[in-house]
Design goal:
Elements: E1 3-7, H1 11-23, E2 27-31, H2 34-43, E3 48-52, H3 60-67, E4 75-79, H4 84-92, E5 97-100, H5 105-119, E6 132-133, E7 136-139, E8 144-147, E9 150-151, H6 156-167, H7 175-182, H8 193-208, E10 215-218, E11 222-225
Parallel strand pairs: 1-2, 1-3, 3-4, 4-5
Antiparallel strand pairs: 6-7, 7-8, 8-9, 10-11
Length: 229
C-alpha cells in the first residue's frame, strides 16, 4: 500500500485529502509542520509527499529544498497562489506537481496515482538507453546518470528529460515531446517549464565540466543532446 505524507496546517483540507487518498487505497500520515515532516522523512520511507507552501514554521519551498538534500521522494505542492512564477519556482526546486487551492481532493488523488505510476520501476521494460553514452553513464534501474563519472543530483523530471535526450543523440525533441516523456499532459500548462528543467540540467553539468555544452537549443524547435562534450 503506497504511503503518502500530507503536510498541511489546515485540518479541514487535510481531512478531505486523507479521505480521498484512503478511498483510493493509499496509506496516509498527516503533519502540520514542515520541520516535523522533514525529520520523519529522514527516518521513514514514503512514496509521495503533499506539501502546503504556506506552513507555520518553514515555507513549503524551503522545506522542499531541504528535502532534496537527502531524498528524491515525489512532491506535490498545495498553494493558494496561482501565479506562473510560483509554479516555476516550485518545479525548479524539485516538485513533481503543483495544485492551486481550492481544489478537488479526487483530482489530487488522481495526480498522486499518475505520479506514482510514472516513477514506479518497470522490471519488464527494456532499458531505454545503453549503459554508456559518451561522457554519460545511465543506470535506469536506479534512476541515476553519471557525467564524466560524477553522479548528477537530478530530480525525477530532470532524469527523465536527460534520459530521453540521451536515448536518441542528435534528435531534436519538441517541448511537447519532452512533456510526453515526463507523462505530463500538455493542458497542464507545463510546456514552458521544460525550459526551466533544461536550465537546471545545464547548471548541474557545468558544475562537473564547466566548458561542456551537451544539451543544444534549437530555436523554435526544441532541444537535442550532443555526446561529443
Amino acid at each position: 500500500m503506497p504511503k503518502v505524507l500530507i503536510v498541511e496546517d489546515e485540518a479541514a483540507i487535510a481531512d478531505t485529502l486523507v479521505y480521498a487518498l484512503q478511498a483510493e487505497g493509499f496509506a496516509t500520515r498527516w503533519l502540520e509542520l514542515a520541520g516535523e515532516a522533514l525529520a520523519l522523512l529522514a527516518s521513514e520511507p514514503f512514496d509521495l509527499v503533499i506539501l502546503d507552501v504556506g506552513l507555520a514554521d518553514i515555507s513549503g519551498f524551503e522545506a522542499c529544498k531541504r528535502l532534496r538534500q537527502f531524498s528524491e521522494v515525489p512532491v506535490i505542492f498545495l498553494t493558494a497562489r496561482s501565479g506562473e512564477i510560483d509554479r516555476v519556482v516550485g518545479l525548479e526546486i524539485g516538485a513533481d506537481d503543483y495544485v492551486v487551492k481550492p481544489f478537488s481532493p479526487r483530482e489530487v488523488a488522481a495526480r498522486v496515482k499518475a505520479i506514482l505510476k510514472r516513477v514506479a520501476p518497470r522490471a519488464t521494460a527494456p532499458p531505454q538507453v545503453a549503459a554508456k553514452q559518451g561522457p554519460f553513464r545511465i543506470d535506469s534501474a536506479r534512476c541515476q546518470i553519471h557525467f564524466h563519472e560524477q553522479l548528477l543530483p537530478l530530480t525525477h523530471h530532470e532524469f527523465r528529460l536527460l534520459q530521453t535526450l540521451l536515448a536518441q543523440p542528435g534528435r531534436v525533441f519538441s517541448r511537447t515531446q519532452l512533456l510526453d516523456a515526463l507523462g505530463v499532459a500538455l493542458e497542464a500548462g507545463y510546456e514552458r517549464n521544460i525550459d526551466s528543467h533544461i536550465k537546471g540540467l545545464r547548471a548541474k553539468m557545468r558544475e562537473v565540466a564547466p566548458a561542456a555544452k551537451p544539451i543544444q537549443t534549437h530555436r523554435g524547435l526544441g532541444y537535442s543532446c550532443c555526446l561529443v562534450h
